[in-house]
Automatic annotation (TrEMBL):
Residues of the full protein shown: 178 to 403 of 404
EC code(s) of this entry: 4.1.1.36, 6.3.2.5
Annotated stretches, region: Phosphopantothenate--cysteine ligase: 15-226
Descriptive protein name: Coenzyme A biosynthesis bifunctional protein CoaBC
Classification of source organism: Bacteria, Pseudomonadati, Pseudomonadota, Gammaproteobacteria, Pseudomonadales
Species of the source: Marinobacter vinifirmus
GO MF annotations, alphabetized: FMN binding; metal ion binding; phosphopantothenate--cysteine ligase activity; phosphopantothenoylcysteine decarboxylase activity
Gene Ontology terms: biological process: coenzyme A biosynthetic process; pantothenate catabolic process
Length: 226
């Protein structure tokens, strides 16, 4: 693959981006997941690579091609995503961006054989998954961390709460109650929060929003590290 350009607002920076859904197996043929398309994370990866960054995408199962010049490490479960992200950050990372829609819970046990339809009702015991973003942000060598928050109400309050709770440098809030935006759409509108300010972007294409996010992340991560 071609060398990244030496110029651009992220020249020489190493980015790790999580994207897409995770899948949590119930038995050999079934899983729990969500409707995340991965489009926002892949758009940011593309924009960051175009801005000169070395980009590694830790990606759940999606139907998207690897963006030009971006290394994709495919994962399936939330536990896989944590392991792959920790490895990628240990290899060297200046900015960590978590766009993935990680399943909050997984089945307590994955049945070894296909579960048979034997009763009128069934219940599934679920246990909490590890939080990749919070784990990376809590490291002593934490990179500049950017989270996403998909909310339907009290967007600003929930998003800034998440930023503080997970000790993030920035959070991108998505109002998923807006029709035709967000999950699975090519369009989005977001509000970005950092400790001293905020900026609303869009409605616009996910690629245009990704380009503005990359500019904001570049200037704020500079401020932290220099
Ligand atoms: N995230 C993560 N690992 C998880 C859950 C979330 O890395 N197990 C990341 C997401 O990629 C996102 C951010 O944390 O960047 C916020 O995710 P969100 O689902 O909005 O927040 P949660 O902390 O899971 O809280 P809740 O779903 O209850 O609102
Ligand atoms: Ca969640």
């Amino acid at each position: 693959s071609p060398e990244p350009p030496a110029t651009g607002v992220l020249a020489g920076r190493r980015l790790v981006i999580t994207a897409g859904p995770t899948r949590e197996p119930i038995d050999p043929v079934r899983y729990i997941s969500n409707h995340s398309s991965g489009k926002m994370g892949y758009a940011i990866a593309r924009a960051a690579a175009a801005a000169g960054a070395r980009v590694l995408l830790v990606s759940g199962p999606v139907n998207l091609p690897a963006p030009e010049g971006v290394e994709v490490r495919p994962v399936v479960t939330a536990e896989d995503m944590l392991r792959a992200s920790e490895r990628a950050v240990t290899e060297g990372c200046d900015v960590f961006i978590a766009t993935a829609a990680v399943a909050d819970y997984r089945p307590e046990n994955c049945a070894g054989d296909k579960i048979k339809k034997t009763s009128e009702a069934m219940s599934l015991a679920l246990v909490r998954n590890p939080d990749t973003l919070a784990t990376i942000a809590a490291r002593p060598d934490a990179p500049f961390t950017v989270g996403f928050a998909a909310e339907t109400t009290d967007v600003a309050r929930y998003a800034t709460d998440k930023m503080q709770r997970k000790k993030l440098n920035m959070i991108v809030a998505n109002d998923v109650s807006a029709p035709g935006l967000g999950f699975n759409s090519d369009q989005n509108a977001v509000t970005v929060f950092w400790p001293e300010g905020q900026e609303s972007i869009g409605p616009d294409s996910k690629q245009a929003i990704a380009e503005r996010l990359v500019t904001l992340i570049a200037s704020h991560s500079d401020r932290i590290e220099n």
